[in-house]
Design a protein that fits this description.
Blueprint (H helix, E strand, L loop, with lengths): L1 H10 L1 H8 L3 H4 E3 L25 E11 L4 E10 L2 H7 L1 E6 L5 E11 L2 E4 L5 E5 L9 E2 L3 E6 L8 E9 L10 E5 L8 E8 L6 E5 L6 E6 L2 E9 L19 E5 L4 H8 L15 H13 L3 H15 L1 E2 L1 E2 L11 H7 L1 E2 L1 H14 L4 E6 L19 E8 L2 E5 L20 E4 L8 E2 L9 E9 L4 E11 H14 L1 H16 L3 E11 L4 E11 L1 E3 L2 E3 L5 H5 L13 E2 L5 E9 L5 E8 L6 E11 L1 E10 L3 E2 L4 H14 L14 H23 L6 H27 L3 H25 L2 H22 L7 H41 L1
Helix pairs in contact: 7-9, 8-9, 10-11, 14-18, 15-16, 15-17, 15-18, 17-18
Length: 808
């Protein structure tokens, strides 16, 4: 970037040398305020500080214009509240166009401890040429007068005033202005005053306010219009709101009564010289003849001219004086090979005339085009120039500043400018511009293939059409393939961790069809979660276009990317797991977006088909809560937020049934033989109950492990069942109740059925592991069933013995 700026400055050295020696005496002077001013007071005593007044408190913003004398007067009174506020006010900056305007300083003074301190005479100042738009390849020649104030303290009131004398030639005949009576901070008083001849007639349109002007005739040749507001509310701007939405409260004024008058003012600037066709450069003539012989059809010739201006004439604007509004002679633009939107459009207009193709320049606004029908007619309503082309009754719109576009003249992408004003001798009104409609979605095909339990291969094939292809082509030309590859790899590493390239990125550009195909290949690591190896799934749609951080309580609409249409397919091949069949369609409804998710899982593969299409450029404030809920619901159902590939490894769960089976087959016969010894009935009953309790605990623990995913959950269930069964067995032993034994037996049989159901339902276990778990559980169920029968038999025998003894 630094080298580009140096190169740009060197290219402009002739212009910079001319403007480098600024004559401060002719551009700036000190003088008394004009006699026609009206003085507005402001409070010197402390005023309650509003929440929006953080570092500075604006007490007065006063603007007065004398249209007859072409003089603009500005007057400010600002109180410092903090040290940061002192730093902000210690440098007063006044921007102006030196080609038509002169600055006259009137007042700089400080109010402190009841006294006024003059600072104008001794204030250090300088005229500098900042060129704030140099990075955007625009050179406007504006100057900035900077005052460096000394000894400013907290609580001081800084008052300053100045006049700008002169007017731009293009706007000296018609009065136009915007009076903003709302800032992003509260102001104690805002005033605006206009002086002009009583015959001065202009339209007035308040936006977001009901303030009406006060009108007085000061004399037979001078009339006053004035607006005054106090204690203004701050303008609330919310991040990501559309540029056309809810501007600050202001008053539009324009002497232009119709858009036709605007055309009549601007159109003469875009009329080619009468001798243009007879005095064009030889190189231009040769190029036009080459296009005529190369292409037989008029649309093909127009496309060749368009691509030349877009790609061979770089964007650079020299906008000093009239250069900000009047295009450069197309013959010079052709020779210089640079120009801004006016110059490039005018050059293309001239080239098409040589090709005998009709065209007309078209004024547009790049971000506020939707509001153009609502504003008053004025040349200042526009910030860009494009071209309308007419070929055999078909109308085309092209933007000569959009470099490296692809496609034909019929498919050439034209941005969403909404409304425009044609510059022709017959144009009278704004015209609606073509709606932006994507004919093809961006297609992203993502494929995951697991070659081992530790590594997966990821391949991404992305196909871009229309504006997406244009944007990628420009990025490729500007940054290079290596930079794009590094950026994509960095994105994957942020998401997955230790990602490496499996193959170099490949980009295939079919410019004629305006299709760009991007091929990517990566090697991804799997991750360990909860004793399993898992892998997250990257979704381009979810990462780029759906933001769940939007505030559903905001009051303004939420701007979204438009136009957007993306179709994404995610395919997963995993030989280390066998998924149960699952298929689902998810298609929520919303007025601003179209979203669908189709899921199909079967065997070793899973497919997710996602589609997103924005239906308009914003989310209305009334449906923000629904949008926020929808995006969060999409996130919960999205493949990037769930575990897709679970790779089975030898863990505690998988090896547990084997150990249980060995222990069961070895220990159970020994315990069973020991229970066959001759013992008293009471000892046998106690022994059988203890043995049942141990085996029942084994079944319960196995059940909980198979069902539960949490160690805490497992421990709490086992502890509770252990205490409950111990109490129940003691109760049976003390009361010798056969009914309690029968109830316990029924409960035990029910738990056994539930256990067998869960053994055969989990999808993470192999068939052999399920069979082994079933055999072990059946063994323990059989033992417990036998124990309960023995207990019941002993209790019945004991009751018979007691009954016989009683009879005897």
């Amino acid at each position: 970037m630094f080298l580009r700026v140096i190169f740009f400055v060197l290219c402009l050295s002739p212009f910079l040398l001319v403007g480098s020696a600024i004559d401060q005496n002719t551009q700036y002077s000190k003088g008394v305020a004009p006699s026609w001013l009206k003085l507005y007071d402001f409070p010197l005593e402390p005023v309650s500080i509003k929440s929006s007044q953080v570092n500075l408190q604006y007490l007065l913003i006063d603007t007065q214009r004398n249209w007859e004398e072409k003089t603009l007067y500005r007057h400010f009174a600002i109180k410092t509240l903090t040290q940061s506020g002192i730093e902000m006010i210690s440098q007063l900056k006044i921007d102006f166009d030196p080609s038509c305007t002169q600055v006259i300083g009137h007042t700089i003074r400080i109010f402190r401890e009841g006294k006024w301190l003059d600072r104008l005479e001794n204030a250090r100042y300088n005229l500098i040429q900042r060129e704030t738009e140099l990075e955007q390849n625009l050179y406007n020649g504006d100057l900035t007068l900077v005052y460096f104030l000394e000894d400013i303290r907290e609580g001081d009131i800084v008052e300053y005033s100045y006049s700008l004398k002169g007017s731009h030639p293009l706007f000296s005949s018609h009065y136009t202005d915007n009076v903003y009576i709302q800032r992003d901070f509260s102001v104690e008083k805002i005033t605006h005053r206009l002086l002009g001849h009583p015959n001065l007639s202009f339209l007035i349109k308040p936006i977001g306010t009901v303030v009406e002007p006060k009108i007085f005739d000061l004399s037979t040749s001078l009339r006053e219009w004035s607006w005054e507001v106090s204690d203004t509310t701050p303008y609330s701007y919310e991040q990501d709101q559309p540029a056309w939405h809810n501007p600050p409260a202001h008053i539009e004024m324009s002497q232009y009564q119709t858009w036709e008058e605007v055309v009549q003012k601007v159109y003469p600037l875009y009329v080619l010289p009468l001798d243009f066709a007879q005095s064009i450069p030889l190189e231009m003539q040769a190029l036009v003849e080459y296009w005529k012989t190369t292409a037989n059809e008029l649309p093909e010739r127009a496309l060749l001219a368009l691509r030349f201006v877009q790609d061979q004439v770089r964007y650079l604007g020299i906008e000093e004086g009239m250069g900000a509004f009047q295009p450069t002679d197309p013959r010079l633009t052709f020779q210089h090979r640079f120009g801004d939107c006016k110059d490039k459009t005018f050059l293309l207009h001239a080239l098409l005339q040589l090709l005998e193709i009709p065209s007309k320049p078209l004024l547009v606004h790049t971000s506020r085009g939707k509001r153009l029908p609502e504003v008053l007619p004025t040349p200042l309503a526009f910030d860009h120039l494009v071209l309308q082309v007419e070929i055999e009754g078909v109308t085309y719109y092209v933007d000569p500043t959009s470099s490296l576009q692809g496609g034909t003249l019929q498919t050439n992408f034209f941005p969403k400018y909404e409304w425009g004003l044609l510059l022709s001798n017959t144009a009278k009104e704004l015209i609606p511009l073509p709606k932006v409609s994507l004919k093809n979605p961006t297609e992203i095909d993502t494929s995951f293939s697991l070659k081992s339990e530790d590594v997966a291969n990821l391949k991404i094939k992305s196909v871009f059409y229309e504006s997406k292809a244009d944007r990628l082509r420009r990025s490729l030309a500007w940054n290079g393939l290596k930079k794009i590859e590094e950026t994509s790899l960095s994105t994957m590493q942020e998401f997955y961790g230790a990602v490496t390239l499996d193959a170099s990125m490949e980009i295939i550009d079919d410019r004629e069809s305006n299709i760009i195909t991007m091929l990517e290949a990566y090697r991804l690591p799997t991750q360990m979660f909860s004793d399993q190896k898992n892998m997250k799934i990257f979704s381009y749609i979810l990462r780029s276009y759906l933001d769940d951080r939007v505030n559903p309580e905001r009051s303004s609409p939420y701007a979204i990317h438009y136009p957007i249409w993306v179709k994404e397919r995610i395919h997963i091949e995993n030989p280390f797991i066998n998924w149960n069949f699952f298929e689902e369609q998810y298609a929520p409804k919303h007025e601003s977006i179209l979203y669908t998710l189709s899921t199909k899982v079967e065997g070793n593969s899973a497919d997710f088909d996602i589609e997103l299409k924005h239906l308009q450029d914003h989310i209305p404030s009334a449906s923000l809560r629904d949008y926020w809920a929808l995006v969060n619901d999409i996130g919960r159902k999205a493949p990037s937020k769930i575990i897709i590939a679970s790779l089975q490894t030898p863990t505690k769960e998988t090896v547990f049934p084997l150990y249980c089976s060995i222990a069961g087959f070895v220990i159970w016969p020994l315990l069973y033989l020991s229970s066959r010894k001759k013992r008293p009935t009471q000892d046998l009953l106690c022994f059988q109950l203890n043995k049942f309790r141990k085996f029942y605990f084994a079944i319960t623990i196995l059940s909980v492990i198979l069902i539960s995913d949490s160690l805490v959950h497992t421990a709490s269930l086992v502890a509770g069942i252990t205490a409950g069964v111990s109490i129940l067995c003691n109760y049976i032993f003390l009361l010798r109740s056969v009914k309690v034994v029968w109830c316990l037996y029924c409960f035990f049989c029910l738990q056994s059925c539930v256990l067998f159901y869960f053994i055969f339902t989990p999808s993470s276990a192999q068939i052999s592991e399920k069979i082994l778990a079933f055999v072990v559980c059946q063994l323990y169920v059989g033992i417990c069933s036998h124990m309960l029968k023995q207990v019941r038999f002993l209790l019945l025998e004991e009751k018979k013995a007691i009954s016989s003894a009683g009879i005897a």
